[in-house]
Amino acid sequence: MVSSSSNPNPLLQVNLFSRFFHSWLSSLINKSHKQGTLHLDDLYDLPDHLESTISIDKLEANWFDEIKRCPQNPSLVRATLRTAGWRYMLLSLLLIPLVLRLSTDAMNKFSSGEITNLLANDANKVELLHYYLNYLWIAPLQTLAVIFILWSYVKYITFIIIGYTLFLLFIQPLFSRLFLYLRAEVLKVTDERVKIMSEIIRSMRIIKMYCWESAFERKVCRIRTREMIKTTVFMMCHCIETILSQSYLSVIFLMIYGTMWSLNIKFDTRSFTLLYVLVNYTRQSCITYFNFAIRDVLNYMAAQKRIRVCF
């Protein structure tokens, strides 16, 4: 693809090596060093395939095609994959302009507050999906490699690490589903609060004329109280999950020390250093990032259902 602009992007013509190491930016960096700054005219033009208008049109066409294929249960996930493919991280940029193309029926069905809440919460969940998604397959492979290395040094002590790690991995999907349920409950109340606040603002003159301020104030306070209670429960569950994740190293070494002490197994500095590095690595990739990946996937599935209803 060749750009017809006055400052074409060199990314369109560079080789694989330059793409991988980003060496195609060297000329821009040198210009910045010589000038002391960069001006807007110095920047390269955006390639055509990255322009939002083209991507939005493609997503919209794929969504309408998905509706024709599966009118009873269209999937925004399939439309997304056909549109962006590996560039699904751009989807959040597509959803916001796409909302401006809602049908008249959808605009009448949903209030402006609900649409605002959709953009503020659900579109953000789509954007966050790609951050840790690859750890769904990276983490198990890394865990197997760590187990192999540990077995060659500490033998049966490895089963302690495996057991506690598997325990956390098994309860993480349960926590994620619980978070998904609690978040859905919070969003329901948030939608209700945003909707009534929008109605109050639109009908402010009528409310003032009939002196309904106190009644609406009590109603908003009740909704806000419900929202805060559900949010508090959600955050408490999140704290429990965080404690289990952050205490992983301490619990592992406590069980290892206790087992080795009871069995009179020598535990030297070399073994401690190796265990600490590998177990900490397992906590980072397998416990933390793998958990984030599961959470983001479930949040995305919930978000795409809410977004799909609007279209």
UniProtKB/TrEMBL annotation:
GO terms for molecular function: ABC-type transporter activity; ATP binding. Keywords: ATP-binding, Membrane, Nucleotide-binding, Transmembrane, Transmembrane helix, Transport. The chain crosses the membrane at residues 85-102, 132-151, 157-180, 232-257. SUPFAM superfamilies: ABC transporter transmembrane region. The keyword Cell inner membrane does not apply. It is a multi-pass membrane protein. Residues 99-258 form the ABC transmembrane type-1 domain. GO terms for cellular component: membrane. Belongs to the ABC transporter superfamily. ABCC family. Conjugate transporter (TC 3.A.1.208) subfamily. This is ABC transmembrane type-1 domain-containing protein.
